Amino acid sequence: GAGVSQSPSNKVTEKGKDVELRCDPISGHTALYWYRQSLGQGLEFLIYFQGNSAPDKSGLPSDRFSAERTGGSVSTLTIQRTQQEDSAVYLCASSSRGWETQYFGPGTRLLVL
Amino acid sequence: GESVGLHLPTLSVQEGDNSIINCAYSNSASDYFIWYKQESGKGPQFIIDIRSNMDKRQGQRVTVLLNKTVKHLSLQIAATQPGDSAVYFCAENIHPGGTSYGKLTFGQGTILTVHP
Question: Rounded to whole angstroms, how far apart are CA atoms A96 and A63?
C-alpha cells in the first residue's frame, strides 16, 4: 500500500512568513510523529499524536511551532514567523500503534531566506 | 540529556566486504532499538529492529547485535553492495514517564560508502 506522503517536497520562504507542512500517514496508522533534521544531523523529535489523545508537544522548539491532526489522519505542522534557523528537513512518520515501528515520509525541505 | 551516539561518522568499504556500524546509547531504560537507512533526499527507511529482551536479530543480509551490559548496538551488513551506500542511523525508543508509546531518539548517523 501507499507509504507516508508529505507536501510540499520543497518550500522556500522569506523570514517572517508562516508556512504549513502536510503529512498523510499510512492508512490505518493511529500514531503520527513529526521530526526535524538539520543538515548533516540526526532527527529531532517535535510532536506525537496518538488517536484522540492529547498530543505530546514536548519537542516543539518554540511557540511559533504548532501541529494539528484532523480526523485522526492528515496532520499539518505550522511554523509562524519563520526564522533562518528553522531551515531543515521536516519528516513525518506513522506507526500502527504508538510503540510499533515508525515509517517515514520523504520529508519537506524548508529553506528560510 | 541522554542521547544515542555513533562511534564512527564515516565508513568506507569495498563491494563484497562485510560492514559493521556501531552505536552507543546511554539510556538504560530504552527497550526498543531500530536501525534506519537514509539515502540522499529521502526519508529514513526501516532496516531492522530489536527489543531489549534479545541480543541478536537477523534479517536479509543484516544483523543487529545488542549488548545491554555496555549499552552498545551494532549493525552488520553482509556482502555490502554499492546500493547500501547511505547514512545509517540508530535510534532508541524511550517510554517517557511509563507511557505506552515511545519517542525515538536518533544518533548523528554514520555515512557508509561502498566502492565497486
Answer: 29
Beta strands in B6-61 (DSSP E): 10-14, 19-25, 32-38, 45-51, 56-58
- Alpha helical stretches, state H, A1-113: none
Cell of B111: 555515512
B91 touches chain A (CB under 8 A): yes
For B22, other C-beta atoms within 10 Å of its C-beta total 17
Judged by CB atoms closer than 8 Å, whether chains meet at B104 and A98 is answered as: no
Give the distance between the most distant pair of CA atoms in chain A. Answer: 38
What span, in angstroms and rounded, lies between the C-alpha atoms of B58 and B102? Answer: 23
Phi, psi of B83 (to 5 degrees): -70, -10
Pull the grid cell for residue B65.
547485535
- Tell me the pLDDT tens digit for each residue of B60-71: 999 999 999 999
Mean pLDDT computed over every residue of chain A = 92
pLDDT of amino acid B2: 39
Cβ–Cβ contact B97 with A under 8 A: no
